[in-house]
Design goal:
heterodimer; A: 48 residues; mainly alpha; 0% strand; B: 222 residues; two-stranded antiparallel sheet; 79% helix; globular
Chain lengths: 48, 222
């Protein structure tokens, strides 16, 4: 039973870690987009 | 969150709960291996879906070399990442299953060795992608993505053609599973397929957005 428990714990932990990694990448991307907006305010102002 | 995303995540949650219920409560306990055999349902499903992920890397790489479109390159990258995650889980859960069944964490059985080689090749593919940026790097990675597919049939047929201790469950003569076990396996397989689809979708969108941001940044700096 212990091995079965660890087998499934490993799967859930790995999936949770991967989702965390993806969310960090998305946050990083949002930060980069915000920086770009600051650098290109004139072009952004043209957009509706 | 888009409506279709919410729909996919809802569908995945229901399937995940259903497959966990089937794995732990519906499927009967295997006579010889006992409770630990329940690792099989996710272990084999993850293995089959990692084959699919690597087939998508092959197709994406091939299409990228043919058309030069960024979409295919990013699709191959997304699928490779999730394939490596799934195949890594196959190796780890296989090892956890092997300890009480075979008495060892690892043995150089043909299928296990082929699975490890496949994992290392796709990790090399990811390392190559991470090492540099640009079209040349993408093309080199695409070639490696195409060549690496040779591992998939090697892993699949190694247990059938070479003498090892890995069991062969699905053969031409019939399935070595009783109906409740087969149903549980099929639900687990569908769950892992949907999980692969959802993760690839998210990872692909992130990859395409990151590439667009990198382009804009280069334009701003120029």
């Amino acid at each position: 039973m212990t091995y079965l428990f660890f087998g499934y714990v490993v799967i859930w932990l790995a999936l949770a870690m991967y989702l965390f990694l993806l969310s960090r990448r998305a946050d990083d991307l949002r930060r980069q987009i915000a920086e770009l907006r600051k650098d290109r305010p004139a072009e952004d102002a043209d957009r509706p | 969150m888009r409506r279709t995303d919410a729909l996919w995540i809802g569908c995945l949650s229901v399937l995940m709960l259903l497959s966990l219920w089937m794995v732990f409560l519906y499927a009967p306990t295997e006579r010889i291996m006992g409770q630990v055999q329940r690792i099989f349902y996710f272990h084999v499903s993850l293995s089959f879906v990692s084959f699919l992920a690597f087939a998508v890397v092959f197709l994406g790489s091939l299409q990228y070399l043919r058309t030069g479109r960024e979409f295919w390159d990013e699709l191959a990258a997304a699928s490779a990442e999730i394939g490596v995650l799934f195949n890594g889980l196959v190796i780890v859960t296989g090892s956890i299953w092997a300890r009480p069944t075979w008495g060892v964490w690892w043995t150089w059985d043909p299928q296990l060795t082929a699975t490890l080689i496949m994992q290392l090749m796709y990790m090399a593919y990811m390392a190559l992608r991470a090492s540099a940026e640009g079209e040349r790097q993408a093309r080199l990675a695409a070639v490696l993505g195409i060549v690496s597919l040779v591992n998939v049939p090697l892993v699949f047929f190694s247990a059938r053609l070479l003498r090892g201790i890995s069991p062969v469950i699905f053969t031409r003569r019939g399935r070595g599973l009783e109906p409740a076990m087969l149903e549980t396996f099929l639900v687990s397989l569908v769950t892992m397929l949907v999980l692969y689809f959802v993760l690839t979708r998210v990872r692909l969108r992130l990859g395409l957005a990151a590439a667009a941001v990198a382009r804009l940044r280069a334009e701003t700096l120029a």
